[in-house]
Protein 1
Amino acid sequence: MANKYVQIMPADDWYFVHDRSDGSPVLYKLIGWALDEQGKVEGIVAVKGQDGAAVNAIPRVQGSRYCHVSRFSERERKALESFAQRG
């Protein structure tokens, strides 16, 4: 069952970050912070489903975290730059 959000706020320059099995970083750009009916706050990302655009919570991954771009490690910063150049 999908979460029902009661409030959504922007998350400018925030990412969900974790490492692949080879150690390379995976970065998901957050579009916002969502507050659900139980009072839990989670990061959300844009997804494209069968019905068009939607938002979705990110499943937790071991070792994952939310991180502002200003707090990225050098390795994460390089991954973001590489992704932007392909963009």
Protein 2
Amino acid sequence: MQRHVSFVTGAASGIGLAIAQQLSRRGDAVAIADLNVKAGEAAAQALRDSGHEAIFVELDVAKRESWVKAVNLRGTWALKRFSQP
């Protein structure tokens, strides 16, 4: 079975959240990236409570260093989740 990890920006609410929910329903593990920590953590928890794999990654899309940190965190999470045989 092929596994996908999706990284969705602006996913704490609105269209980004709807996209994250749809991707999780198709079986993707989802990294919810957003500047709004409280809403992002709640969105990720709601997906996990529904039986899906999700994490929250704080991201300010206007700052390069925020991207580097977010992508590295998401990558580490994905490797831990899917490198097991």
Protein 3
Amino acid sequence: MLHPTCLVIRDSYEKIIDAKLLVRGDIVLLNIGNRVPADLRLIECFNLKVDESALTGESNSVSKSALPKESNMEESNIA
């Protein structure tokens, strides 16, 4: 069985690792078509939309940004 992998920056180096080995402090690099391997705080993005249908049932993609919204009820910088 294949394990999901992701590209991270860890210890100042880019590495491809198993998603189950992600730890706090890893910076995950996402590209078009990538699956989000874990709960992430976005620190930089441009025109990012995430398909959250498996979590919310919502059929439309949700826009995300690196800047948190004023409201604590919904944070747009979480993927």
Protein 4
Amino acid sequence: MTEKKYSTINRLFIEATELLAIHPVTGIRTSMENIRVKIVRDFVIVYRSSESELQVLSIFDTRQNPDALEEIVESQQT
């Protein structure tokens, strides 16, 4: 079987989401209900979770305008 090769940052995202799937409350709470963030280097993984699902809403580069992140998250609110 061939081994998949990922860039370092992709591997970090995969590891972080696998950990969040097991322990979703480890992320940092936000002011928005059921929305949390996990910091991965210069990025945040924005997600929400339920008992049966982890939904990644966005992976955001924190070196960008922070207002853009708020707009992204607000657009995902249901």
